[in-house]
Design goal:
By secondary structure, the protein is of the alpha+beta class. It has 4 helices and 4 strands; from the N terminus they run βββααβαα.
Amino acid sequence: MPNELEVATEREGRACWVFQIRPKGQSAPDWEVTLAWADYDWWSPTGRHTPSEVALAVMHVLEDASKIEIESSAGPRRFDASNIRRLVPGADRLIVGRLQLAR
């Protein structure tokens, strides 16, 4: 069963946002996720969703596809959101669908 996730921190990087994402109730972030501005625009073309909502949708789709398990670890693991396209067939459609359900 997938965990409920939350963004612990958010900051701007070079042409991207960088998030620390963890399961709710955990103290240490488990994933450092980068989300390029171009990918954000692709998944939320109207800007209706916040960058953190898009990053969480990406991680949920990745976890739902059983490609990862978001759980406590020794330190944050890194993941660039664009890589989901290589790991999960139909990832763009799944992310957009998840975002539409969230609102």
